[in-house]
Design goal:
Elements (H helix, E strand, L loop, with lengths): L1 H18 L15 H4 L4 H15 L12 H23 L6
Length: 98
């Protein structure tokens, strides 16, 4: 439970930093993009997506997980995967400038 709490705390801190606009260098892909590529991205929307995902996923680490209850672990993993796919799609559509 300690490791899960540490991971959740790190996710919340990273999410808040990104949402505050101070963590653009923490967004994978954006930090290595050229200036030309960065101009194509609506950074406020991208921050909202990535920071929001980090903050939303963090509480999932606090759900008590019994080692014998595989279905709960798979459910949590499924939720994280689905949320990540949704954010990836939105990052490549909604967060791009027209």
């Amino acid at each position: 439970m300690i490791v899960q709490s540490i991971i959740a705390a790190i996710l919340v801190v990273i999410g808040v930093i990104i949402l505050a606009g101070k963590g653009d260098m923490l967004i994978a892909g954006y930090n290595t993009a050229s200036e030309e590529e960065k101009e194509k991205v609506n950074i406020k929307r991208l921050r909202l997506l990535i920071g929001g995902l980090s903050v939303i996923i963090a509480p999932l680490f606090f759900i008590p997980n019994d080692e014998n209850d595989v279905s709960l672990g798979l459910t949590i993993t499924g939720i994280i995967v689905v949320l990540t796919i949704i954010v990836l799609v939105l990052a490549n559509t909604w967060a791009m400038k027209k």
